[in-house]
Amino acid sequence: MPGALCVIVILLLLLCVAGSCLAQQDAPPVPVPNPQVYFNEGAWVMTDLQYGEVDGYPLLLDAYLPAADGIHPAVINIHGGGWRSGSKGGAMNAVRGDLLIPEGVAIFSIGYRLSGTAPYPAAVEDCLAAVRWIREHAAEFDVDPDRLAVWGGSAGGHLALMMGFMEPGPDDLDADGNRIENFVRCVVAKNPPTDFTADDEMHSERALVQFMAATREMAAERYAEASPVTHLSSDDPPVFVMHGTADRTVPYNQALVLQARMKALDVPMALVTFEGAGHGLRGAPAADIDRTMRDAAEFVLEHLQ
Question: Using one digit for the tens of pLDDT, what is the confidence trace for 94-120?
């Protein structure tokens, strides 16, 4: 992949310059990124690429680029952790990179500001900035900006759905210069929060209250605004959801609310239910989880290829 390697070197030089500029200002709350490039499991891995900066806080992502020549579709991974923990590492396992990379699919994994650093809407804004950055720089990674998917679990599933349902702006254009209808072609979400106004216990989850920096009673309109279902429209991309019926962190009702809303709008949705499984599909048979993850990867390949 000679062309991409040249780009990697250029990007690293640019990032070093950016790091020097940051160093001359007030010290950021986290270290200035130190990008790394290496080859692993059939992919060129580029870590800690800076896609933005907010108040001295560098916003970083990792890229996993197939070694094969050509222009690749890509999956954007958004990690979970209740909006207050977690990291962009481990994306290859999270999105089954072992199934996607050999098929020529690139993977990007987004880091974003956690609720302890900045509450809503910071994480949503950061993910949008990352998606736009990936689209803008797609050619540098041999990626097709118009063949993107997004994948996330739990809080990452909420953010993935937001990326799928939020309306692009007038400056969000495709490769031909036309305004895009959606940022991505499809969404995969594992036990995602979907509606913070629903009649279940999701709204009182402590991690959500911290993320919103308020209870639902204090900020009802903001809770609605932060709900993926609020942004859902009939032209939105198809969704693959997996959820356990015994989930006490994100009630299974959240999947049913999304399913009903998508059905009413005639937007395709596949819901895989795990009877008796808890949050993160805890307690479900490993073979069932593996089969569903493979189905999710096939879902992505179908919509990207």
Answer: 999 999 999 999 999 999 999 999 999
**Stated pTM of the model:** 0.90
In this structure, what CATH number is given to the domain that contains residue 19? 3.40.50.1820
Mean pLDDT, to the nearest integer, of 185-194? 98
Structure tokens that stand for 262 in this block: 């998508």
Distances (CA, A) of 13 to 90, 129, 231, 252: 26, 22, 39, 47
* Range of the structural domain that residue 267 is part of: 2-304
Q: How many domains does the chain have?
A: 1
Q: What is the C-alpha to C-alpha distance for residues 219 and 227, in angstroms, rounded to an integer?
A: 13
Provide the token pair at 9.
């070197």
CB neighbour list of residue 273: distance below 8 Å, 6 or more residues apart = 243, 244, 245, 252, 255
- SS3 annotation, 133-169: HHHHCHHHHCEEEEEEEEEEECHHHHHHHHHHHCCCC
Q: What is the mean pLDDT of the chain?
A: 91
